[in-house]
Amino acid sequence: MSQLLDVTIAGISAVQIVVPSDLAKGVLGTVASILMTVQSVIKNKSDFQAIVKKCKTIGEILERATKDTTDDNLPGYLAHALSELNSLVNDINNKVISRKKQGWFKSILSVTIDRDQIASWEKDIDSALKLFDTETLVGIAMTVEEIPGIAMRVKELPGIAMRLDELALRIDGNSTSVNVLKDQPIEPPSRPSMFYGRDDLVAELTTLVVNSEHIALIGPGGMGKSSLAKAILHEPLIIEKFTDRRFFVAYDDLDPSTITFETFMTHFAGALGIEITGADPLRPISTFLHSASSLVVLDNAETFEEASALSALEKIPPAIAKIADIHGVILILTSRSRRNATDVLWRTRDIPPLDLSSAERVFFQTYPRARCSDAKEEIKDLLRELDFHPLSINLLAHTARQNDWSSAVLLKRWNNRHSALLNPGKGKLQSLSDTMQLSLDSPSIQALGKDGRRTLAIIAFLPQGLNDNLAGDLLPSLQDVDTICDVLRMQSLVYRQDNFIKVLAPIRHYVQDSLPLPDSTRLREIRTFYYRTVQQCSEEQDGHANIIISDHFNIERVVAFDLAHIPQETYHACSKFLLCLKWHLPRPTTLAPAIFNVVENSSTYELKAYCLWHLGCLYITLSQLTDAMKIFKAAEALYLTTGNHEIVAACVIKCADLCRCQGRFIQYQQLLDGFQRSESWEYLSEPMKDQVWYFLDDARMCTFTAPADELFVKSLDSDHLYGLRSKIQHWRAKLYHGGDIVQVHEHLENLLLQCTHTRVSLARRDALVGLAEVAFCKGKLSEAMDILQKIVEMFEGERSHDAVWYSVLKAVVAGKQGDHTLARELIYKAPESLQFFELRSAFAFLHRSYGMACIELTAGAYDRAESHFVATIEGCDIQGQLDYKAYSKRGLGEIAFVRGNFALAARYFAEISSVCAEMGVPERHLYSCDLFCVLPDRFSGWTLFLEGQSPFANIM
User: CDD domains per the record (predicted)?
Assistant: First the structure.
């Protein structure tokens, strides 16, 4: 071993001398330092043999990769890969030195500890090599794409083409990235401590996995599918093949009625130790799994296989199939259902019950008192009656032990409950229900009386379980609710998690199938507390809001149940709850189908329409604009039936405004034009007509289908809020249409003085934005930033989405002012409020993504700008957004123009023309109504393209 160390150190030192790159020299010097520490201090050098070999590999790789390459001409991808490798190797070296200073090498420690630490360093070095390899291949792949003709030649090289194909997904994903949680690798759950009678099955399944077979473990609840999967994860052959790439994705904490494709993917990513960023949740998971062979267990798959949401049923199976197709990835699926992803070649195994010997070991391990009884044969018969069902045996043993039953009492309970089943030929038991019944018949449960079962029924009814902190408020008539829950927990019928008292999924199914629904008194109490909380909840983050946030799935369950049974009494609570979700926890909701499924009558049309209105507002917050438009159209139809034309107009305006948000100005104008010819128009009040005119003129302003002098004049004299806003927008329209900027500034200053009341905060915002635009057009960028800051301060705390929106514009202006450091600080170090809205609002993401692209473009960081523009375009395609798509295409065209690729620039600019036609915006007025989005004058490719000047004259 000493000789191997000497040779390796000498070889690395020789390479260090000859490689021209200082960065590579630094990496090699650090590697040599690690080996010299091992050589001089370690006694058990043989344990370091694998590390020494990997260090030798680093030397060989760097010698080949950096031959004849100095730091000055080092390719960017290679420089980045070397930097990452240098950082990781330095980290390992620091750990070695730190251990040495602490006296670790001098202490008499167990061999196991030494080897564990050595194995950890070996994994770190292996990770460094994998990362270097990945970075280098990505760089090669990008270079291949850029050099004409070289791609075909690369395909002819053995091995390289395949590895590049594996990386293609990683290279192509500008809108989605992989954020690895770096603190600790994700450890699979431990091997079950009580695991008997499965050795042969484990060996068979392990062989299938090693031979790259996907496995589906099928069986009823409690058969031990999860335990079997956990045991496989810890088999030596599995550890050898997959090392630390063994993952266990648990779905047992989700409810099939609420699971969505997004929650499925989020759980998957969390188990891998990564975060999902971007619009496509599958891409970062695929990218991560492409990097090395992995074994992934999808546990309790019936949760998503039996999902209620149609989108989950449509999207999850194809996603599983795509993951299964990744080279080196093996899936193990555990499920009660056979509705497994059809496009995966599963090796299906039905999990058998335990054999008698194993069943006895499980039972007596949990309930040792029975081992000393004279009723061993009777116990064997009891286990047979349970069909040797693992969970049932375990629950039964726990029940007997906790109640301190003798074997005779246990057998008597069994015989009294199941005497008919003792007759031969009666068939297989429903083991879980039998075991549940025994638990319910235990003395401690019986002592609770009816309240015990009622409480269990309530806990099973609520998807989150019973909030332990609110139990007394939710069930005031159950004065001993805490004691009851303690007894249920002792009997293993419930468990506590995150301040909630929950039941396991098999028990929940049993309770819901076998016990009556919660009685009317308890349901009324729960409804009263939750609905009172909903009604008292406001936009402020107070105690009521906290309950909405903590118990939102439970409240949703109660509302959905009541909509199906007492809809007329539930509509108001439903509407307010949707508003509370919008304020405090924007998320998709299962109430959408519940509302639509209610069969309305003439007395409930408006109540249902009101629910739909708030549902639509929630979906707008979530940027699910297509769904929101369908919801508002449904509400509009109901309001029209009742003759409530004012709210019909409000629904039309909502739909039109959704078109505006997507940059679809033709549809925006058409909806409002058409509404003026509808039967509702003549019934509208003058303020509502003014509002419709306001939005219609806004559409005409954006499409330049009317001169500025004619815009917003019909609603100028209105006493309503829209009268003041119309005056402001009239002068902003003049600015957009090329009017006298001095005159515009003067009128906006005067109008701002009228915006003093809190009720006209939106008018004040409009005036300030107009003044900021005037300052921007005059080149007074500091003044523009100051005005934007006033808007930010005006909305902080109350309308946080407005505050963060204008913070992004402030950063863009800072970039155009030349202060790129400040611009990046403002936009990259986003406050928590922006992160909150970005997670839920694709519109906020697109706004910020485009802002970052503009900042990087202005700073001359074209690669970064290009990445952000591409990400924005991909997000726009998903959301159907046209304006930011056109702006980002312009950005890409200007980057191509700067790089001298005029053909590519022309292609981008031609695509902009197509998007402008779809938007209904003249090409020359692309930015006229969105002045902060305009690019600096030095980026002139678009202008030259429109004018047909060189270099586009010949290309066009």
Answer: MLKL_NTD
